[in-house]
Amino acid sequence: MTSHSKGAPIYYITARVAFKKKKVVHERVVWIVSVFEDPNEIRSLDPKSMHRLTQEMYGKNNKSDKHVIIREILSKKFISYSNLTLDEHKEQNKTKV
């Protein structure tokens, strides 16, 4: 049995994101569930969240390389603890990417 004190905290994050569609930049407020708190860490170390955001903004039939930019974190709410530490999450995602 693992203790919860070693696990990374999981957050429900409300963020403002931007994406470009037909040469027009759109902004939207979306939700993200992640162990990372910084927009740059979410972008580079959390491929599941970024894939979900890309699918939500562009749909599953996008043919070209689309980008979603996390502009700012509006709110952050603690949910629970992960079974892995934050360093283990970073290593896990670096090997898959």
Describe the structure.
A three-stranded antiparallel beta sheet has the order 2-1-3. The mean pLDDT is 87. The longest helix is centred in the middle third of the chain and has 12 residues. Helices cover 31% and strands 39% of the residues. It has three helices and three strands.
Q: What's the gist of this structure?
A:
This protein is an alpha+beta fold and 97 residues long. The chain is 31% helix and 39% strand. It starts with 8 loop residues before the first strand and ends with a helix.
Highlighted features:
single chain, 97 residues, alpha+beta, 3-stranded antiparallel beta sheet, globular
The strand count comes to 3
Helix percent reads: 25-40%
Give the overall silhouette: globular
Write down the Rg: 15 Å
SSE blueprint and pairings:
Layout: E1 9-21, E2 24-34, H1 39-45, H2 47-58, E3 68-81, H3 86-96
Antiparallel strand pairs: 1-2, 1-3
